[in-house]
Amino acid sequence: MKLYNLFTLTASLLSIVSASYYKASRMTYYGGPGDEDSVKDPFCQDYSSKVDKYLTGVDYYVAITAEILSKSNASSYCGKKIKISNAETGRSLTALVVDKCHSCGYGNIDLSVEAFRYLSRDHLSQGVLRQASWCIVDGPSKFACPSSSSSSTSSSSSSSSSTVSAGGIYIQLEKGTRHGDVSKRYDIKYYSGSGYIYIGSPYSKSGTRSSVAAKVDLRKSGKYNIIIKYNNSSSSSKENRIVVNDSNVYKVKFGKTGSEWKKLTIEGVRFKSGENIIQVRATDVFLNYIFIFIYEFPYKGKSLKVEINLKCIMKSPFYEMDFLIICELC
């Protein structure tokens, strides 16, 4: 049996975290092949010495919606650092505000190609980030970064095993407590963190139930949503359980994914105030997991009808996938 220390993430109330960052409905990119001219003569070159005509030596930069950035407030944005966090991949970076985007809606931004590439984990073809948030270091009060984060985010991937991110909490499962036939692997591309968790069988040879667990401290009890990123390369759906505090048990069928990673969302998961333990507990075999993301309930997204014992209707804000969620304690 392999046993690793439980890690603990002490989090502020999630609504406070969300308020520190502005949640964009979409982030796009500009300046790629065939669009090189769009990066020339950025708006902010007239308002900041940090921004030149050709953005020389700058890889991570952004254009903020013209509904926010204008001549009258240019000094509050131009040449300043902007922190961006993508909840879909768990990646964050710091970029430079250099321009304004006339086609972006309120609160949305256009990223440089390299910034988008990093935040999306090299998925430029995705085209749009829909789970990203941002704040301005020493910016206007509405969009200012929290003071505690002014020096915590860099232009590289976070080395923390779990983080309070824009709008929620990441739990990198490879850093959790592992029991039974659970191991850390690296074979499947595009995982975040330092690897991913592989469940080989429901029990080890010694009879220990296979699981991976983490502690999460919350100030407020209630319902939260969780997103699980997983891979199921088998030819059929596989079932495992998501367990919170050994009492709230969710039987989840993970649809087949081939070689890709996919996300599954469960809404209305009950947590208590203070310390909670969340587990992925094996009932089936050959499944891989990257992270669990916990965020506020409810979330207004696409409606997805699923079967559970009390005939509830739940919603998935991400993908309509081949999976069945059965909630024992709804």
Automatic annotation (TrEMBL):
GO terms for molecular function: carbohydrate binding. Keywords: Signal. It comes from the Eukaryota. Residues 1-19 form the signal peptide. Coiled coil: none annotated. Residues 190-288 form the CBM6 domain. This is CBM6 domain-containing protein. It comes from Neocallimastix californiae.
